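Pilot study result, target chain (216 residues):
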Amino acid sequence: MPALRVVLAEDSVLLRDGLTGLLRHFGHEVVAAVGDPETLIDRTLDLRPDVVVTDVRMPPSFADEGLRAALTLRATRPDLPILVLSQYVEQTYATELIDSGRGVGTGYLLKDRVGDVAEFVDALVRVAAGRTVIDPEVVRQLLDRRRDPLHRLTPREREVLGLVAEGRSNSAIARRLVVTEAAVAKHIAGILAKLDLPPAADDHRRVLAVLAYLGA
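Predicted structure:
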């Protein structure tokens, strides 16, 4: 098995050092071990590793910075193999990363479900070789999301749609949320677009949106 040059991004110092030692034990070279997305991008572009391993949640907000950095790298280096190793399935960007990796090595593993270090290293080698390695739980969650027509909505849009489902008018929603009616109209337009409900003479789109919200 040829040695790989790896850039590792993990905000936890203990886990970062542990993964670095693990990969070195299996004969691979960790050319950079970083804890933030900006350094991940800089070091990867500078060092041009064989593969990147990154967490999802990183500073400053610990939301999805690591995964967004991976997408930035994939846009800059379309041939870059990337393995995401996280406790979470960040569904929007996970789908985008997987879709961007057609013909390029892409992996998404959940930390709590990695039960064997040798299997993890083998997954990394397969990703570096251009294979796709996705944890079955990640696949399940992504499929569930794609079946849910509401997954595209923001939390605010879901809140607005919930109030529409209660039969409230735009003005009533605006008073409830302490926003302008124009803002409510903008949210509703976004909801209808994301639910693929274009204008149609025979359909009341607000009713169809409510039906989607109620799971009908």
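One observation from the pilot: The radius of gyration is 21 Å. A full batch analysis is planned for the follow-on phase.
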